[in-house]
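Intended use. Records like the one below are meant for learning the mapping from a protein sequence to its folded structure. Do not use them to infer anything beyond what is encoded.
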Amino acid sequence: MELWIPITVFAAFCQNLRTAMQKHLKGKLGTTGATFVRFGYGFPFAVLYLLVLHFFFQQPVPLPNATMLIAGVLGGIAQIVATFLLIHLFSFRNFAVGTAYSKTEPIQAALFGFLVLGEHISLTAGVCILIGITGVIVISLARVPLSLAAIRNSLAGKPALIGLASAAFFGASAVAYRTASISLEGTGVAMQAATALVYATALQTLVMALWMVLREPDQLKASLANWRSAVWVGASGIAGSVGWFTAMTLQNVAYVRALAQIELVFTFLASWLVFKETIARSEIAGCVLIVLAVLGIILLG
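Structure written out for the chain above:
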């Protein structure tokens, strides 16, 4: 098995864990504060990871270059914008279709990867990606009673456009991070990923902290007051980011983001096994499609 596969699965698991803790924290902090702790409390862990690689595993820290600096900025800003757009979707009554569109990230990542890095995906992998996205869309719409007319109206509405924009920014940020990471020379893959991660997380922490100081100071105070819970969000978030950055340094972004859809399977397993929640048949069907897509990418893609 290629190394990027277990690393991606690990990253998806950590992201699932971080999201669960972030949702719990959102009740105390609000959207902005819960988003900030992912970066602000994650940054020290990113630095610690880089220092461990350098001092204990003797991996040299690469010198930054123009490509890394520019791509890191673009990736960090794009990820913040994508996150806010995704959260903004929930302010609409008919957000389900928009949310489903936001899950088209692997396709858009493949497009950006082709345009920016000249990367191609195989026909088999492309089919698997489409199957996986179909599964995600089925799950997204599973519990929403949508008539044909409602879907038709939603397709041209603001939620659909916001969903597509969110997916585009997520896809662009992933390609920008890969560009930043692979541009670094004179060190190993893990250190390439760690250096790009530290730079991007520092930028995101600074941007969000400045925003909160100027626009939402109460959110910043609440984020600091709830540090005992927030530190775990930061730790799990950075653990996932280490996985994402490393996997995307090793492999085409479209493959990594497609395999990452297994996160939804983790979500439903937790809902079923831990919280004893009832799972709809359509949600099970969506999970089956995602698993088939993941297996196809691993075995055939």
